[in-house]
User: What shape does this take?
Amino acid sequence: MRLALFQPDIPQNLGAALRLGACLDVAVDVIEPCGFPLSDAGVRRAAMDYGALAEMTRHASWGEFLAAPPRRAGRLLLFTTRGAAALHDFEFRNDDTLLFGRESSGAPHEVHVAADARIYIPLAPGARSLNLTVSAAIALSEALRQTHGFPTGAPTG
Assistant: This one.
């Protein structure tokens, strides 16, 4: 299972996604360009003490991401408000990559076309969307639950 962010706009969301990936033992792919300078120091600052635990791969472009061997290993699943399948009706696999678009504009047409499936998270009437990392956490939770992929560590509290 992988989490991919297409050209993220907000560094705090990237930091939260790296923390999410670190805590759930899920690799995170960042597809550039980002809407902010993406330096090693910036990643460490955004991810706080979880940056060292996170497995992050940077891709200079959409094409580079598509060509990467880990990406080609399984399905590419785009989470979008224009999805065709509801999260709870979708069957996930261990080698899926869960892809999320830009916070400001979502994913462009070529990303929609490349996706093997487009999934949405059902919301209450009148609600437009969730925060990027909240959406990723919901999606990863369901995907890991279905595939029995949650880490097996004991509670730390």
User: Anything to note?
Assistant: The CA atoms of residues 15 and 47 lie 4 Å apart. The chain has a mean pLDDT of 91. The chain has one domain: 2-147. The two ends are 26 Å apart (CA to CA).
